[in-house]
């Protein structure tokens, strides 16, 4: 992605008003608070964005990462769905090579049976963890090579049961849970296009190849039984506050989190700090800023300008926001301000 995003012209000012909003949550634990607190806050924020009219609420699979409590993703999806009424709840995503497709089909088939027309199945091929944990998951590096075949098997297991079919997901068969492909490179973009599946690009942590991946997906898209035309979600870090100064203060929690990721430290969310000066070295600052280069942080109009420009560049149909803010009340307020921007 370019280092800077152009200021939107008058022709792009209205793009934000037509976009769908969704949220990605990793169930972050906060310094000084428990994992149970993190799960309660995940429920609370899901209910909040549902009231704001958000389209979907996704949770991401990660393992053995202190500070992230979304490892049992399917369990949490059921918990969130049970505490909400309308919003779609799903995975952003399930790392498919970590699991037998039959087990995933049974889990999400069960969820779809319990919560009809509300469950999404986003799939990735990364391990979502380190090499040691990969071995604990009985996953080999070469397992990712079978990802296209695994996706096809999952489609068959969740689709209509065929005469003479020997392997069935029960529940799962004929639930037709919508499958999404997620990615931060060109591989998943190409595969999503070939299979006619909706595509979500992870520009919230890997923005560099965003434009190329989205363009590749759109140009090569082949209609399927699930999807007639390409559909793109863009993940983006968003923090909206009443003032630019307040938004930048709140954003230091996320900056500290990414810095900890680079250093191999706990990712528990830290309270904001007045300045990141003295917290990072120059090369670390550059790395964090590149990591978050797609972020929209500021007062409402500043965020609107950044998101409108992002939509103009990508033609995305939906924004999947990540809001790493320490205090729940400030996090909820940020999401409310964002929803107001779209409603305008």
TrEMBL record:
Ranges of residues in domain Luciferase-like: 30-317
Name of the protein: LLM class flavin-dependent oxidoreductase
A single MF term (Gene Ontology): oxidoreductase activity
Organism name: Oceanisphaera ostreae
EC number(s) given by UniProt: 1.-.-.-
Xref: InterPro entries: Bact_Lucif_Oxidored, CmoO-like, Luciferase-like_dom, Luciferase-like_sf
Domain of life, source organism: Bacteria
Alphabetical keyword list: Oxidoreductase
Assigned protein family: To bacterial alkanal monooxygenase alpha and beta chains.
EC top class named in words: oxidoreductase
Pfam families xrefs: Bac_luciferase
Gene3D superfamilies per UniProt: Luciferase-like domain (3.20.20.30)
